[in-house]
What does this fold into?
Amino acid sequence: MAESSRAESDHHPARALAARWHGHLADERRRSPHTVRAYVATAHRFVHFLEGYRGEEIGRFGLLGVQAADLRAFLADRRAAGLAPSSAAREMSAVRAFLTFVAEDIGNVAQLPRTRAPKRPRTLPRPASPEDAMALAEEAGEGREAWIGARDTAILLLLYGSGLRIAEAMSLKANALPIGRALRVTGKRGKSRVVPVVDAVRQAIGEYAALCPYPLVGEMPLFVGARGGPLNADLVRRAVRSARKRLGLPDSLTPHALRHSFATHLLAGGADLRSLQELLGHASLSSTQIYTQVDAAQLLDIYRHAHPRA
It folds into this structure.
């Protein structure tokens, strides 16, 4: 936070609460840096809207007086600004969490106002075929310095072969070397899980480690940038976009789509939902159940194209 913004928060009770919420989310709730930034930005945005909507400065206790009509007005304002239903739903979730924090901080646990969040469309992940996933990983490593290409190939194979989120791959430490048959990763909210590592992934990581010009030891990141520091995930996404374009693959084939592909292919191969939930690190089974829809959609597509009576 800039010095001017920090000074403003110090003199603005509601914004000071939003600033303190930042520490609560990061330190006590152990939310990811991206989530913390997004939630706190929403809290400040809500305070700013509320002051304009009511025509008065909002203090600490003013937040406790928020009504359902205020939340509906904020939601309408965000939707009018072009926010998609799924994004608007996330903002409402952040506002409710902020108001809950305020109520607990002040010591007033009065019931919060209720309003219905916009309905999120249930979109199905678009999995890649095994051939496309492997081709993308290999192509992403072409045309650049050998060790950087090997690094990006290893990361993408890890997303597809072990079902990792890209942030989880970035958080791996060098002390994980040499990679064995399984790997412990830390996911959302600091939860750890063990994922399998197939031969192709293990070999790709070994090749990258052998080529990397920087020492990969101890607590330093396993995947490093061109200068030896932590790798920015956006560089991997950029490599994927270029490789995807060269291969003529659809825009839907993102790094995260490789994780979807891992899940869908395991389910098609007979994995049960509970096992898949553990491998993906989902907090609830409902997050995993969407992959049954993906599999059904694929089967229906095969049926329509192959069955003589379809």
Notes: Residues 33-54 form the longest helix (22 residues). DSSP finds 13 helices and two strands in the chain. The longest strand covers residues 182-186.
